[in-house]
Structure formats: C-alpha cells, structure tokens
Amino acid sequence: MTKLPEFSIPSMFEQCSEAEWKMRVDLAACYRLIALYGMSDMAANHISACVPGEEGSYLINAYGMLYEEVTASSLIKIDIDGNILSKPAFVGADYGINRAGYVIHGAIHEAKPELECVIHTHSWPGMAVSALKCGLLPLTQTSMRFYKIGYHDYCGVVLDVSERESLLRDLGENNALILRNHGLLTVGKTIPEAFNAMHRLELSCRTQLAAMACNTELNPVPRDVLEETYMNYQPQTRRPYGLMEWPALLRKLDRIDPSYRD
C-alpha cells in the first residue's frame, strides 16, 4: 500500500497581530460552516476577509485544501493583485491560490474596503437558480430579503481582470449577487453578516427549486407587500445580520471539531 506523505501546517499565531489572528479564526470558521451546511465545492470557490490594519491585503484559502480542512494558520495573505504576502510553510504540500479568487474577490475588496468579507459558492441549488431565466423568485419571506438582488451575466471562467468593472456594477449596493450560469456571491461588513446572507440565499434557492418541482401553480405575493418586506430586511431598518448567532455557530464547530482554530 502506498503511504501518503504526512501533511501538517505550522501555526501562524506568532506571525500575526491579535486582530489578524481573530480574523483568521473567524474566516476559518466560515469555511467550515460553508462545508457543514452543504455549500462547498471541494477545493473550488473562495471566502476572503480583509486583514485588519493592512490596507489592500486580505486572507483567502490555499488552493487544494478542502473547506473542512481550513484552519486559521492555513489561510494565505495576498494583495488585491493576487501577490502572496505571506503563507504558512506547508509540510507535505506546497499550496498557492486560485487566480479566480483574487480576480473576483480582489475587485470587491479594492472598490469597497468597507466590506470585510466576500463569499462565493457553487452549490447545486445556487447553480440551478443561476441557470433559470426567471432567476430568484420572491416566493417566501426569506427570499423576499433578496427581492432586488443583482445579476451578472456569464462571460466564461473569471480569469480576466477586465470583468471586474461589470462585476462591481452588477453588485451595486446589494449584499448579494447571482452569477448567471455560475453560482452565488454575498458580501458583508463582517464575516458573520456575509455568512448569514449566503445561508439565507442558499435557503431561498433550495425552497424555490422545491416549490417549482411540485409542478403546480405558485402563489404570488402582491408587489406592495414584497416592497415592504424587502425594506424590513434592509440595514437601515434592523440590526446587522449574523452577529447574534455567530458565537453559537462557533460553539457548534467547537463541539464537532475545534481544529479550525489552529
């Protein structure tokens, strides 16, 4: 039997500020939660977060690691152009980053520095809805939160920085974007906010597909009710999403596998 080489990641704790280490732990937790809730695509996709106090730099996953393996120390620090600023001394592997990660994420972090976190997924419900001409329908209270979601037309694998301008235009001031024939994207001023948006967007896609699969007439909601419900979900009318339940989600991860903190 062939023995696989041992794989380990030396701790980056001593090389980080206290603020950066906390960000690393929260970001690693976010990767684990995306996997836990069935939204990962093996080693594909990315979740990025800005490095506190270091303008123009952010953390992203090592290309080749599964979301369920990501730890605080495994994250790679890059700039908005994709240059690696620091990474751990991987033992048994030599991981870098995926170009699509910095093309999409770097564009948003550069243009909107107030946004701490960007999440992009290829879940099957998200991809299915992204392929529907009707897009996301406001069928449930949860999906009404995304009543005015943006759409970005498919232009091929996102490797060309020239696509950044249209991506930002289509995102606009929304916190969520459907990448047509591709997947989902959410942003947040904090990691918990971005995760909450993705969790709810994913749930909206799942429920829509389930309702449409029943092959019976869908129940529409009056436009004025849709508008009012949408406004009730906006930042100016309620507390920030995700912050209240984030400690509970971390406790959940700690009960399952606390190694994300390493």
TrEMBL record:
Q: Pfam families this protein is in? A: Aldolase_II
Q: Which SUPFAM superfamilies match?
A: AraD/HMP-PK domain-like
Please list the residue ranges annotated as the Class II aldolase/adducin N-terminal domain.
Answer: 25-209
The UniProt entry, under InterPro entries, shows: Aldolase-II_Adducin_sf (IPR051017), Aldolase_II/adducin_N (IPR001303), Aldolase_II/adducin_N_sf (IPR036409)
Gene3D superfamilies in the cross-refs: Class II aldolase/adducin N-terminal domain
* Record-stated family: Belongs to the aldolase class II family.
What is the name attached to this protein's record?
Class II aldolase/adducin family protein
